[in-house]
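Late entry, written up from scratch paper. The run itself happened at the end of the previous shift, but nothing got recorded in the book at the time, so transcribing now.
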Amino acid sequence: MILTNPLKDLDQLHASEETKEKTLQYVLSKQRHKKTLPIWQGALVCAISVLLVMLWQPWKVDDLPTKPTSPAAIASTITLDVNPSMELSVDAQHRILQTKAYNKDAKQILASIDLKNKELDEALTLLFANATYQKYLANGILEVGIYADDAALQKSLEEEIGAYLKSNATAKRYHCASIDSKTHEAAKTHHTSQGKYRVIEQIRSYDAAYTIEELSNYSMKKLYALLEQYDDSAVPEGCHSERAHESNQETHHQNRHHGNHD
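Output as recorded:
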């Protein structure tokens, strides 16, 4: 028998008062238990939910540390020498990652313009638009040295720089060449830009009495004037591969020596 209303239903039962009282207490205790159980279950679920929310803290998702991205790797170095002597480190996409000044003139110019994270053509445009740099270009000779482990990258950089200089620099006032690994490493050892170092080594091939440290302080115009004293054909124009230039230089060297013997 199910008691829907314990007090009313017990009155209809034929039993002793003591039995009725015990039955009533039993039924009421069961009903109290049934009513409180869902409350405890609900409280437990709420407590667990709150705990999970506090541990997860979804409002801080944006603050969670993300895996750091690897910095772009330097794939090539490009040096530019007039009297200011500077170096641009670029990645495989021709984007400037770092700049370096080899003398005070370059340091002053790089302090006035920000070339980092610029595309190479944009960086060259900013550099050539600098009034101080333009004064050096107007009275000097620009030497550009390009080095990259990857031959295809080196060639593409040479082509891009050559095209830019052809359109924006004065004819016969600039020269650019790809640099071999030996020259690149030697220039680093002597803390000299690779483009300037290449010309210094040409001069020293004629007269070893000159020291690298001494010639490193010369402007490119002065270096080429000195080189021209030994070989008037050694002052190149435009841009070309260093390998081809070295081959021509070696041929001229041999012819010159043969001429002296005659």
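Residues 242-262 have pLDDT under 50 and may be disordered.
(Scratch paper discarded after transcription.)
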